[in-house]
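ligand=fructose -6-phosphate
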Amino acid sequence: MCGIAGFIGKEMAVPYLIDCLERLEYRGYDSSGIALCKKGSIEVTKRKGKLAELKKAINVKEKKNSCCGIGHTRWATHGSPTEKNAHPHMSEKGLFAIVHNGIIENYAELKNELISEGVTFSSQTDSEVIAQLFEKNYKDDFLISARKTLSRLEGAYAIAVICRDFPDRIFCARKGSPLVLCFGEKGGFISSDVTSLAGQSNEIYRLDDGECALVSSEGAEFFFSDMVPKEKLPEKLNISAEDAQKQGYEHFMLKEIFEQNQTAARTVHGHIRGDDIFFEGLDSLFDIASDIRRIAFIGCGSAYHVCLSAKYVTERLTGIYCSAEIASEWRYSDSPVDKSTLCVFISQSGETADTLAALVKAKASGALTLGIVNVPSSSLSVKSDFVIQTAAGAEIAVATTKAYTAQLITVYLIALRLAKEKDCVDKEDYVRYTEFIRRIPDGISEILACVPGQAQKIAEEICNVSQIYFIGRNTDYPAALEGALKLKEVSYIPCEAYPSGELKHGTISLIEKGTYVVALMGSSDVLAKTAGNVKEVKSRGARVIFVGNADRIRTDNYGNEDKILSLPDSENVFSALYESIALQLLAYYVAKMRGCDIDKPRNLAKSVTVE
Ligand code: F6R
């Protein structure tokens, strides 16, 4: 989604702003801009389209004339992606410029009020009201104007604001949308995304909801939103500059796919000691395992697919009734929850608006809440009763890969620990499952060694088709959904996934000679059943790509040698993991052959902070 950058220092602001905006590019955007402050004036430059357009538009004079500036990459919500609607937005008389992430819900009312007082607006955005309010509320005190302005805003925001009269200060505030600061040798940096600050400092300040800061080149003063001062301590930044670089890979997506044996090892070794599975800070949750009557796993997109895997695995291992819920639907549903329900929220960013809203609903209903989050100190991790931090490290490609598999392994471990606490898994099975999970990093290494060649060959064959179907049953089904999502989001080929047995209830009418079907057959429990569904589509002319143990698929004469993404054997209940990694590789190579913008697919954003 939108990205905020800010720099105030002893050197010219432009190179730092551009560098930060470049690092924010991966989050998705359609226009960008910067505003530079010097005593007496604010200069704004904005462009529609790629950052390259903005870079071309910034002239040398601007590069030299200011050490204080703010920048923005916009992902349009209110108003189309035009230069006028791009941020920064200036107030009418040019006293203030602002950049904003989030949505001001009462902007129409505020805009009408300002128009009736004679203010002229120059964009269609909700954000511009913030700039106009700052100016209306200003006499000669930046903070008083900020206090009065914030008290009128409803909705979510992260803002950075510069004022013509204070060329050595940037004001920023957060409510519901992330904002972080750090201070290095060169000065103060502001960003909406902690990854973009990697390499600038080892310490960062994360603004909490309702917090503000007045930033100078030396440091920051922190306040509550009524401008009462508050103390704030920095936290360690655990992202290295290398994390934010491709390190020789052509794309971040490929780098992150290939990191999965290491991220899996971190996840596994972080939670298995001997035969015991442990999660720091979660003992009191496991102590009441026998009181949990229902578990709702809640997330969006790929995280929802992890929820669905979690449902299958947890029901199988623990016997607890589970459901997988799409956060944007569940938040508006009447699904019953009470204090015997555990709601598990799964999110890479920890900032997904619908998942956060679902968390608020769950807490209001008295449910216990557990967040599984990749970004430390994100809103979801701060607001959940219990938190598990996944060990995937910074994920830059928009399409999730390593964060998804870290989530998957985490839910496998939780299910197994719950099963042990509830005494509903045989000792022998428990040891076998634990041993399998311990060996997952090796299994992934095997996939990363063998599958890329197979995936490239298949990608050549399918890269120009007009549609692809994915089928899988039981624990294979969530991986079919994830495989289809991954392929469509990076290659733009329409893909749909179905439970294998569901195809004949309508969708099979779309299968004709030459239609490609990807059949997930990683779980031997249901392999013969899916094989039956494969026969149904083959007899209607479909070409089938198999995902599973190649020996088994060939021996049983299910499939043709050429089109197999071959996986190591998996415990059936955990089959989605290896299947998903093979399908990430397929998606990557298809997108590459189609010349797509793999790390930043069109219209997508890394962190979906709007409803
Ligand atoms: C797909 C993808 C998205 C995210 C979804 C939730 O590759 O990355 O579907 O999984 O937007 O995001 P988080 O996990 O940040 O809540």
